[in-house]
Amino acid sequence: MGGLYVDGPGASFAGGRTVSVGRGRDGAFWTRTITGTTWTTDRLAWAPGPPPGVPSALRGRNVTRIPTTAKVAALTFDAAWDASGVASIRATLQRENAPATFFLVGDFTRGFPVYTNLLAGSGFRIGNHSDTHPDFTKISDATARTQVTAARTAIFNTGGAEPRALFRFPYGAYTASDVTLLNGLGYVPVGWTVDSLGWQGTSGGQTAAKVTARVLAAARPGMIVLMHVGANPDDRTTLDADALPAIIKGLRDAGYSFTTLDALK
């Protein structure tokens, strides 16, 4: 098992026999039987199995909107290179009682474990955004599979949460065979209806007002909004975090409510 990260309550001062549960370095949950001050047996308690099958209506597709006629919108955030906007985004979402989905890269979870735990522990949905953010059109099927499974393990080990069976292709780059591969692994690929372009920063000609206007102009039932938690590497702006309050207000004023991507699993 490679050692437990966390033992259950009472394990360290067990008198007699105590059974504790912890997560091993393999991402699985183990029970440990402790007698006195020594442990005697480790047993596999639970390991994440493959994601459930993809609904037939969603197979072969990179989904860019939720299939509905209701005025609902899904706020989604990619977390890849930086965490500068996480605290502000989380505070806004919680203050406005707006659900959201965060697509995490494995490198992000390893580089920012505190923020990963913060997002997973705040009740937001967590999706898979690959392990190291490669262009899937330029890697082999074997490498693609590893990217997906390694990210899933990283998210689970770092955040303590089982990611949803939702995957977002890095750069939005994919082929039909990539979609088939993801479906075979049990994932629904999720794109977006509108990219806020906040990631371009002010150095790319964007402002919080432009980001807000772009999202509101794309409003339609079932829309999926793409934003990022990271700062622009050139000017260090976090325009998506800055624009989020106005985006939420503007969509609500237009009659929209917010939803998760649970309908896609």
Automatic annotation (TrEMBL):
Citing just one GO molecular function, the answer is: hydrolase activity, acting on carbon-nitrogen (but not peptide) bonds
Transmembrane stretches, start-end: none
Q: Which keywords does the record carry?
A: Hydrolase, Metal-binding
Q: Which GO terms describe its biological process?
A: carbohydrate metabolic process
- Entry annotated with the keyword Lipid metabolism: no
**Record domain NodB homology: where:** 71-259
- Gene3D superfamilies assigned: Glycoside hydrolase/deacetylase
Q: Which GO terms describe its cellular component?
A: membrane
| InterPro entries reported for this sequence | Glyco_hydro/deAcase_b/a-brl (IPR011330), NODB_dom (IPR002509), Polysacc_deacetylase_ArnD (IPR050248)
Entry superkingdom: Bacteria
Note whether Ligase occurs among the keywords. Answer: no
Q: What is the protein named?
A: Polysaccharide deacetylase family protein
Output the lineage of the source organism: Bacteria, Bacillati, Actinomycetota, Actinomycetes, Streptosporangiales
